[in-house]
Amino acid sequence: MMIRIAKSSDKFHILKFCKNTFSWGDYIKDVWDHWLSEGNLLVIEKTNPIGVCHAVFSKNQVWIEGIRINSNFRRQNLASNLISKVESLAIQKQIPISLMLIDTENIPSLLMAQNLGYKINQTWKFYSLFPQENNSYEISYEKIIPNSELSHYVKSWRWIPLDDDTISSLNSKKCIVQSKKDKDPTIAILGDSEHFEKTLIVTLFTGSKNNTMNIISFLQNFGFEKKYQRLQILTKETLPEFRDLEHKISFHLMQKLLS
Ligand SMILES: CC(C)(COP(=O)(O)OP(=O)(O)OC[C@H]1O[C@@H](n2cnc3c(N)ncnc32)[C@H](O)[C@@H]1OP(=O)(O)O)[C@@H](O)C(=O)NCCC(=O)NCCS
């Protein structure tokens, strides 16, 4: 078995076994080209590639995504070897934390992660919201200040810590929307998906029910006006009932300290 950086010709072999990975299919075909150009797309091969994962290294963390092993070759430690390889690269770069996101119902993957020393750090819910004209909202674009509740935001399905630099960069891009109709504000951080067209990804920190409903109305209308096809909301809380808002999946954010 050899682990190496992926090349374009691996796409054919990898996509052959990444079609019906989950009940809804798989997204590897949609991100392969982006991930290859971003770098650190790893494959594990026997005669042909039989496993894959992508790593995104930043100053304070490595994000591991898209772990897939051909079903004929599972339970041979291949995924564990891929992850360990990424971790060793991260350690060389003195990166202290490794993170990955796992569906709360994906037991094989959760067991694998736990075996490797990952712990559940947070649990997030993914909602989809259908864009519609909706004029019953009142919001403001305002700066946020760091606080422990604002732990991460979701950028193209990668959880990024909301440290001071990230917050000031988000503030200056004016992509933070707040509802302050009553005491407990609800905050939304908006960003376009870098991998999927016309897809808005929203990290939501909920306050009062009134404020949350208000922001959801705004998002629904914003999606409609800007012609988004998909509005994806990630939040740690359970959202109130709202027409065209659907809870899809929950995820554990799994973390391992590397040093
Ligand atoms: C999850 C997945 C990547 C695991 O790949 P793998 O190469 O089979 O995993 P490993 O052989 O490294 O597993 C290591 C350990 O994890 C646990 N584990 C892995 N798969 C398991 C399963 N199906 N049932 C129970 N435990 C499992 C076991 O403890 C295993 O050690 P053991 O075989 O000595 O008991 C693979 O099943 C897969 O591709 N699934 C579909 C895609 C997916 O879910 N990806 C992860 C998204 S976050």
Describe the protein in words:
The protein is α+β, with helices and mostly antiparallel strands. It folds into two domains: 94 residues, Gcn5-related N-acetyltransferase (GNAT) (Aminopeptidase, 3-Layer(aba) Sandwich); 127 residues. 27% of the residues lie in helices and 36% in strands. The longest helix has 17 residues. The radius of gyration is 19 Å and the shape is globular. It starts with a strand and ends with a strand. Coenzyme A (COA) binds next to strand 4, helix 3 and helix 4.
Number of helices: 6
Across the major sheet, the strand order is: 1-2-3-4-5-14-6-13-12-11-10-7
Helicity level? 25-40%
Q: Quote the distance from N terminus to C terminus.
A: 27 Å
Small molecules in complex: coenzyme A
SS-derived structural category:
alpha+beta
Order of H and E elements: EHHEEEHEHEEEEHEEEHEE
Tally the beta strands: 14
Which outline best applies?
A: globular
How do the strands and helices of this protein lay out in sequence?
Layout: E1 2-5, H1 10-17, H2 28-38, E2 41-45, E3 49-57, E4 61-69, H3 78-92, E5 97-103, H4 107-115, E6 119-129, E7 140-141, E8 152-155, E9 158-161, H5 164-172, E10 176-179, E11 186-192, E12 199-205, H6 209-225, E13 230-235, E14 245-257
Parallel strand pairs: 4-5, 12-13
Antiparallel strand pairs: 1-2, 2-3, 3-4, 5-14, 6-13, 6-14, 7-10, 8-9, 10-11, 11-12
The chain binds coenzyme A.
The site of coenzyme A has 18 residues, from strand 4, helix 3 and helix 4.
